[in-house]
Amino acid sequence: MKNILVIGATGQIGSELTMKLRETYPNGTVVAGYIPGAEPKGELLESGPSEIVDITNPTQIAEAVDKYKIDTIYNLAAILSAVAEAKPHLAWKIGVGGLYNALEVSREKGCALFTPSSIGSFGITTPHVNTPQDTIQRPDTMYGVTKVTGELLSDYYYRRFGVDTRSVRFPGLISYVTPPGGGTTDYAVDIYYAAVKGEEFKCPLCNGTYMDMMYMPDALRAAIELMEADPGRLLHRNSFNIASMSFDPAMIYAKIKEYVPEFKMTYEPDPLRQQIADSWPDSLDDSCARNEWDWKPEYDLDAMTKDMLAKLKVKFGKA
Ligand code: SER
Q1: 33 lines ligand 1 (CB under 6 A)
Q2: Which of 16, 51, 180, 212 could in theory staple to 12 by disulfide, Cβ–Cβ 3.0 to 4.6 A?
Q3: Is the beta carbon of 183 within 6 A of some atom in ligand 1?
C-alpha cells in the first residue's frame, strides 16, 4: 500500500500525475496538495482527498504527512523558466526553499521524495547534442540554478541522511489537459491548440531551435517507474536524463500540417525565450535511465501529434 502526497497537484504535471497515481495505487491514498487560488476541481477533487499544502510552509507539509501516514512525496511545485527570470526571488523560494522543506520533512518522517529536474539544469557550456548524464551544469537562468541546486541538495540528503530521493530531468512536456505557464518549451503545446482552433500560430522561437520534448503519458510513467525502481540498481539518483523526441519549430509545424494541411505558422521570436532555449541542450543521452531502471519512451512526434490533435478536437467540440 502507498500513501502519497502530491505537492503542486493542480499544476501542469500534478493534475495528471495525481490521477495516474490514484489509478496505479487503488488501495492507497493519494493526497492532492494545492495552494489557495489553485483548488482542485472535477475528477481531481472527487477522486481522493485534498489538502492545502504550500511548499514554502514546512508545518503544512508535516501535518499532511502525519494525517495521511504519507510514505512518498511527489514535489511538483515550481516556477517555470521564463517567469522565473521575471521573479527570481520567488523561483528560489519555491524551487530551493520549498525543496529544503520537503527534504527536511522527508528526513524527519521517513518519506521517499521525487522532485523533477529539467533540461533547464544545463547551460550554454554543456555539450548540446546527445548531452551526457554526467556533464557540465552551469545554467544561465534562475530556473536552472534552482534545478541544479535541487539535484545537489537531494543527492546530499540521500548520502548524508539516507532519504530516498529520486529525480528525472524532464524535457519540455506536452499535454492536452492542463496548459503550462511561463515555460520556454510551452510553444510546443500552444501550437497544437492553435492548429485545432483554426488560428495562425506565431512561434516565439526561431527555426532551428532544437529541444527535447516528451508527451505527458511518458513523463508520468517515468516518474512512477523511477520511484518503483530497485534501489540496488540505481547508480544515479538526482537526476536522470530521460528523452523521447527532439525537434525544432519547423519539424513540429510540418508534422501538424500532415494532419491539418491548412494550418499556418509564422515566426515572431521572443528574445528572452530564444536566449533560454539556445542555452539548453538539443537532445539528451538517456542511456543511464535505460540501463538503471529500464526507461523506455512510447511516444514519438507522430504518435504524440495524432493523439494531441484527436484529444484537443474533443476538448473543443470539433471531433
Ligand atoms: N518546460 C520547462 C520550461 O520551459 C522546462 O523544464 O520552463
Answers
A1: no
A2: 180
A3: yes
Question: Cβ distance 193 to 228 under 8 Å?
Answer: no
The pLDDT, as a whole number, for residue 42 is 97
- In the reported structure, the alpha carbon of residue 183 is separated from the centroid of ligand 1 by a whole-number distance in angstroms of 5
Model confidence pLDDT, tens digit, residues 155-193: 999 999 999 999 999 999 999 998 878 899 999 999 999
pLDDT given at position 1? 66
121 CB near ligand 1 (under 6 Å): no
Q: Domains, the chain, ranges and CATH? A: 3-170+216-241 (3.40.50.720), 172-213+244-315 (3.90.25.10)
Over residues 271-318, the pLDDT tens digits come to: 999 999 999 999 999 999 999 999 999 999 999 999 999 999 999 998
147-162: pLDDT as tens digits: 999 999 999 999 999 9
The amino acid that residue 158 corresponds to is Y
- For residue 220, what is the enclosing H or E element? helix 216-228
* CA distances (Å), origin 6, targets 23, 177, 227: 14, 17, 13
Atom of ligand 1 nearest to the CA of 84: 7
Residue owning the nearest CA to atom 1 of ligand 1: 172
| Active-site hit among 34, 143, 157, 299 | 143
